[in-house]
Write a structure and sequence with these properties.
- 43% of the residues lie in helices and 13% in strands.
- It has 3 helices and 2 strands.
- The protein has helices at 13-22, 38-41, 43-55; strands at residues 2-5, 28-31.
- α1 (13-22) links the parallel β1 (2-5) and β2 (28-31).
Length: 63
């Protein structure tokens, strides 16, 4: 999973695109206008994304 901000001043657009190319199957969440610290500035939205992602995981038990 990749959680990114569309206006992150520390992670440029090119780097965000490279990250998505490196992990092409990653689920991508792009938050608008939240800056570099969405887990602090918008913790409710960030936490909901994390919980949704974890809730959708499929765990395969060893046989």
């Amino acid at each position: 999973m990749i959680i990114e901000a569309d206006n992150d001043p520390l992670v440029e657009f090119v780097l965000r695109e490279q990250l998505k190319e490196t992990y092409p199957t990653a689920e991508v969440w792009t938050l608008s206008g939240v800056g570099h610290f969405p887990y602090l500035n918008h913790s409710d939205v960030y936490t909901k994304i994390i919980k949704t992602f974890i809730g959708n995981l499929v765990i395969i038990a060893p046989q």
